[in-house]
Amino acid sequence: MRQSFFAVLSLCLFLASPALAEREISGQISVLERMALPDDTMILVDLVDADDRVVASARRATEGQQSPFDFALTGPAESLLVLRVGLRGMEDGFWLSEPLGIAPGTGDMDVGSLRAIRTPLMGFASLLACGDQYIEIGFLPDEVRLRLNEQLITMQSRPAASGAYFEAPDNPATSVHLKEDSAILRIDGAELSECRLIRPEIDITQGVWNISAIGDSPTVFPSRTELVFYPDGRVTASVGCNRMVGNYRRHGGVLTFGRIASTMMGCPDEVAAQERRFAEALVRIDGYRLDPENRRLRLTAAGETVLQARK
Description:
Elements: H1 2-16, E1 22-30, E2 42-49, E3 54-61, E4 69-76, E5 81-88, E6 94-96, E7 100-102, E8 109-115, E9 117-118, E10 124-130, E11 133-140, E12 143-148, E13 151-158, E14 164-168, E15 171-179, E16 182-187, E17 190-191, E18 195-198, E19 210-214, E20 217-218, E21 225-229, E22 234-239, E23 243-251, E24 254-262, H2 269-284, E25 287-291, E26 296-301, E27 304-310
Parallel strand pairs: 1-8, 10-23
Antiparallel strand pairs: 1-4, 2-3, 2-5, 5-6, 5-7, 6-9, 10-11, 10-18, 11-12, 12-13, 13-14, 14-15, 15-16, 16-17, 16-18, 19-20, 19-27, 21-22, 22-23, 23-24, 25-26, 26-27
């Protein structure tokens, strides 16, 4: 009887607990380039929280439709969020909107039309929070790239007494000075509000990932496989025989791979087949999910898990 009482009490408390409030965020994605997008183009919608951690994402094929594209995504209502929308085509076609801050609120929100701009490689793109404006910054060898006001600004490393200093080579009045998590950003001499560099406390660039499954198939000798992401956008991999090297781009929960080169050693048939499945999976990937507590990484395509890895 006592056990039954506590079971009923627990059920009542569960039913009485308020569910986390959610809201729908909707809008349109437009691309201004005069071109026909291929049928296999994917629509990317991504929400991260104020610490640049993925909270929601959606993927769907355009199926031959052309710009503009409607989108809708459900996310937590009581949190500050950052929205990105874009398109990913094969052959490294990639268009992405600038990050848009979404203030907490209880009602559904229509953000209107967002323009997705063709975006080059930026490596592991982080966020600069400058007041209520969010700016993407990507770190490449000896330079950084910023996306701001539909422009891509490249700055090169310069000597600094402290921290890291980068300056536009053709315009010294445009610069960014990074000191730990703070930044001073100047555009044509105008200084933006005190900026803060946001990177997830735990991210995919920390450590070596052993690939445990490709699609539904466990890998052969997973301890001999590895996948390594570098903050400057380089990636290396091995799935049992050949070494592979290439590049990737990460924007919030959006993750795609560029061209991958490989050594050409002869491999056992089973391992060679595994390498082919791995290469085919990389082409499709458009997102990821990271579980730091269980040290697990899932790489996804159109919401489907296509690669699994663990530390």
